[in-house]
Amino acid sequence: KKAKVVAVTHQEALWVAIELSKKRRIIPSVDAAHAVGYLKKMNFNKADLAVSSQFGRGDKDRAAEQKYFQL
């Protein structure tokens, strides 16, 4: 099977990072938030299982998020 190239905007990823921080009490990196952002766009069946590794240090990305959201 060939690789499938997909896209998630930086804005979508930043919103996912905020959502993960609030709901899961983790600070994901922007890279990890992009991956989860795409998972949210996929259509899953009830029996499907999705695994996402939350790698990276999201605390390094906080300055970019604060600037983007004007916090």
Keyword list:
single chain; 71 residues; mainly alpha; 3 helices; 0% strand; globular
Spans of at least 5 consecutive residues with low confidence = none
What letter string, H or E per element, gives the SSE order?
HHH
Q: Characterize the main sheet.
A: none
Radius of gyration, Cα only, in angstroms?
13 Å
Please estimate the helix content.
40-55%
From the N-terminal CA to the C-terminal CA, the straight-line distance is: 44 Å
Shape: globular
Mean pLDDT: 81
Report the count of strand segments: 0
Number of helices: 3
User: Structural class given helices, strands, pairing?
Assistant: mainly alpha
Beta-strand percentage range: under 5%
Please write out the topology:
Elements: H1 10-24, H2 30-41, H3 62-69
Helix pairs in contact: 1-2
Can you walk through the features of this model?
Helix 1 (10-24) packs across helix 2. The protein has 71 residues and is mainly alpha-helical. The model has no long low-confidence stretch (mean pLDDT 81). The protein has three helices and no strands.
Question: Quick summary of this structure?
Answer:
The chain has 71 residues and is an all-alpha fold. The protein has helices spanning 10-24, 30-41, 62-69.
